[in-house]
């Protein structure tokens, strides 16, 4: 099969960041949960059984946690967009869907968040 678009997944990744609109949110880190789907043709990696030929979800997770820990934004929209740019530039993801949840932000909701989709999913 040529140009398949498979998905590498990360679900419920915990990242800590200073994030929020209100003054009281600017003095401490809050925990966010991130789900990511990364478009990737995994067939070469599977054929060769070689991690270098796919997206390394451990490396992606570590990089996003590191980026979030050093960040300081008001909106989770901004963090989502920055994550997306990082994933495209540093990991070459041609397509991604990313969800950030901020549990506890609305007491009456289990969690609130944003979801973005960027890039193009190749059709085979
Ligand atoms: N769409 C958004 N709405 C809100 C955000 C946000 O980042 N995106 N942030 C806040 C506050 O920081 C809130 O989380 C504090 O409880 C409110 N609405």
UniProtKB/TrEMBL annotation:
Associated pathway: Cofactor biosynthesis; tetrahydrofolate biosynthesis; 2-amino-4-hydroxy-6-hydroxymethyl-7,8-dihydropteridine diphosphate from 7,8-dihydroneopterin triphosphate: step 3/4
InterPro entries with a match to the protein in the record: Dihydroneopterin_aldolase, FolB_dom, GTP-CH-I_C/QueF
Known catalytic reactions: 7,8-dihydroneopterin = 6-hydroxymethyl-7,8-dihydropterin + glycolaldehyde; 7,8-dihydroneopterin = 7,8-dihydromonapterin
Lineage: superkingdom: Bacteria
Keyword Isomerase listed: yes
GO annotation, biological process: folic acid biosynthetic process; tetrahydrofolate biosynthetic process
Keywords: Folate biosynthesis, Isomerase, Lyase
GO molecular function terms noted in the UniProt entry: dihydroneopterin aldolase activity; isomerase activity
Domain Dihydroneopterin aldolase/epimerase: 8-118
Any GO CC annotation of this UniProt entry: cytoplasm
Record EC number: 4.1.2.25
The keyword Plastid belongs to this UniProt entry's keyword annotation: no
CDD domains: DHNA_DHNTPE
Enzyme class at the top of the EC tree: lyase
Family (UniProt): Belongs to the DHNA family.
NCBIfam families linked: folB, folB_dom
Function in brief: Catalyzes the conversion of 7,8-dihydroneopterin to 6-hydroxymethyl-7,8-dihydropterin.
Protein name per its UniProtKB record: 7,8-dihydroneopterin aldolase
Source organism of this protein record: Hahella chejuensis (strain KCTC 2396)
């Amino acid at each position: 099969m040529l140009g398949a678009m498979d998905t590498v997944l990360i679900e419920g990744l915990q990242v800590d960041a200073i994030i929020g609109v209100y003054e009281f949110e600017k003095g401490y880190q809050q925990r966010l949960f991130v789900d990511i789907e990364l478009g990737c043709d995994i067939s070469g990696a599977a054929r060769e059984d070689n991690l270098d030929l796919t997206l390394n979800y451990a490396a992606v997770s570590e990089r996003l946690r590191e980026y979030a820990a050093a960040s300081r934004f008001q909106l989770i929209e901004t963090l989502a967009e920055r994550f997306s740019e990082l994933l495209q530039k540093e990991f070459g993801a041609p397509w991604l869907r990313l969800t950030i949840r901020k549990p506890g932000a609305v007491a009456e909701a289990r969690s609130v968040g944003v979801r973005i989709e960027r890039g193009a999913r190749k059709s085979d």
